[in-house]
Amino acid sequence: MTRIDQFESVFKSADKPLFRYEPFSVDSPMVLTDLDDEAAESFAVLAGKYAGAGGSQEISAQRVIRGSDFTSIEDCLDLIAGEKPDLIYTYRGLHSDCWRWGHSLGSYVEVLTQTVSVPVLVFPHPAAAEALPAAEAGCRHVMAMTDHLAGDSGLVNAALFFTPAQGTLHLANLEDQQVFERYMEAIDKIPSIDSAAAQDSVLAQILKEPRDYIQSCRTVVAEQGLDVEIQETVELGLHVADYKRLAAAKDVDLLVMNTKDSGQLAMHGLAYELAVELNEIPLLLL
Amino acid sequence: MSIYLGWISEAHPAVPAWVTLLFVSILAAMILCLAFEEKLHAKKSVIAGLFAILCLLLGAVFGLLPFGPISVGGHEINLPVYIPAIDWEVIAIILGSSLFVDVTSRTGLFTWIAIRLTKASGGDPLKLLVFYGLMTVVFSAVLNNVTAMIIVGSLSGVSLKKLQQEDKLLGFLLVEGLLTNIGGLLTLISSVPNIIVGNAAEIAFLDFFLKSSAYVLVATIVTIALGSRLFGICRLASEAERERARELVAGFDENDGIESRFFFWFGAVMTGLFILTIASTSVLPYIQDLGMGFVALSFAGIMLVRYKAVADKFYEAFDWDLLGFFAALFVVINVMEHALVLQLIGTGLSTIIEAPPDIAAAGLLVVSALFSSVTDNIPLAAMLAKILQARDQVSEQLWWSVIFGANLGGNLTPIGSASTLVAVTIIHKYKLRLTFAGFIRKALPYALVHIALAIIYVLLFF
Fold first, then answer.
1. Which of B36, B115, B255, B275 has the largest CB neighbor count within 10 A?
2. Is residue B191 within 8 Å of residue B184, measured between CB atoms?
3. Do A16 and B253 touch (CB under 8 A)?
4. ipTM of the prediction
5. Dihedral, CA atoms, A49, A54, A55, A59, nearest 10 degrees?
6. Contact between A51 and A29 (Cβ < 8 Å)
7. Which pTM value belongs to this model?
8. Which chain B residues have a beta carbon less than 8 Å from that of A213?
9. Is B286 left (phi over 0), alpha (psi -120 to 50) or beta?
10. Which of A12, A16, A212 sits opposite B158 (nearest CB)?
């Protein structure tokens, strides 16, 4: 490594993305259900409890969609296009009983999370007796999870919005352990690279970046006077299993993650697997 | 030429004229090889080393070398003939100061300064150019011009990319490259020609600084102003742009490279002490006898205590090519001296040196600049220092002409100095198009202004 590269690396490492606080706002939410009037209203009340830092929010009756309002995905998308909501509350297994088996979000939810540009807050199915009561207690502990947190102000701003005063915001960055090990195995076979030093340096650097970013989040949150405790989890992990373990360990009420991927029609990265498997926790899919 | 050779043959009948000419051709071949080292894919130390071997062999064959014991402090010591040929004080200064700078850079001190200045500029291109320009000059003076170019050049690449001002990178790197040779004039240890010529002329550190600083100040201002104008580097137009640039540079964390606060401050204090001690070496009791090489090596040794378990990493990273080159070069120059080549060149230069003082000074400055623009300025400095040293009376003007010429010649071509070569390396690393001729075209206005200012300065103030 030349000295030019050395100094360039020092300056690149010193160049850190800073958290930009741009308050996430929800002015016209929409509740999308396949229920009848009364059940739909009950679900809307539950959804209102997740209305974010501003406290519970009443959702106008016109914006609560009942099961009879649409019969196809096309109708559903038309309804959303007409209402122009800035947040959709719904639940897994909409117009489907797939939620009973837990292998899918249901075709409606899967299509709309990818087709509609606004965030979708997906609850467990209202009939999932063991799951929904947990959500009814409201939202105290929010977790934003990703494998690349540094610079993702959008994710953190959304998670902050749903974290109430004196609540806890967990910022979790799990680097893929299998990918890391694969690269380290390759490095092990390259004689010109000191494998032990490379392993230590690469690991330290990939964990340092999200930690620095979380520190920047703490600073900005304090400057903004937000009464939110920020906790961090930055480690190597085997995604789905470790995310599930983390969410359970932190008693998370809402999980926030990115799902849009401009390069593909399916959900971004591991988002789909997580969305399917974490079926007892409300999910905010951005 | 025949007049000169005739004079040499008369004065030194032991060295036939054709032998001197043979060594002249060897010297010319070495200089040519050094000028084309990139094309030859050979390191300087290997080139100079091979020529040193050849010179020593031929020197022995022709009976030119003074074999036998040498006297050190009244004691006769048997040393290989090529050992006393090397100027060990120069080697010690280079080795010590390079190690010191290398270890001190690990404290995060230099990057801290560089990032603080970047943030102070608010990301405004013109302010950045001024701050980076001044930083280049100061770092070149205090550290050395190659390290200065590496630090400021790599920061320029990273920060301008972040500010989305990559189109200005060529201008920044070129101006910084030129300023390294201006900053290299500020102190006695800022560049190798300064060390060699300063030692030969017995110029004290403080004296050197006081005499060169006014020129450095003026040349720096002119270079930055010219750079801003020729490369269109100006202030951001709107408040929105300025606000955005401020936000972007705010992301730089000056504390990122600092491993330990204590070591950071230790590094800062030691750097201050190093400059102070080097500056006062000629008046400090005991230290004045031990010399600047001792000071540089001592400071390097003290700094290495922090990394005592991994000191070998610093030795590995050291530029042994440079040190090997100097050692071999001194051997070559020494043999050339015995072969009367330096006397021959000195006689050739006497037309210039013995001209009326002002013409002599200006002429020597221009010749030195032209010569050092096409090859390494170190052999030139070493050779001219020996030639001037051999003369009975040499005016201060002539010594300074060599110093200014050897340093400023580096601004005429991309191979004129090690630091401009580093600038070109960074330029190519960022895939910016700049050919050899392109460099000359862009750098020529600056180089001509620098040389013209230097001539005026030498004529007016020495």
1. B115
2. yes
3. yes
4. 0.76
5. -50
6. yes
7. 0.77
8. none
9. left
10. A12
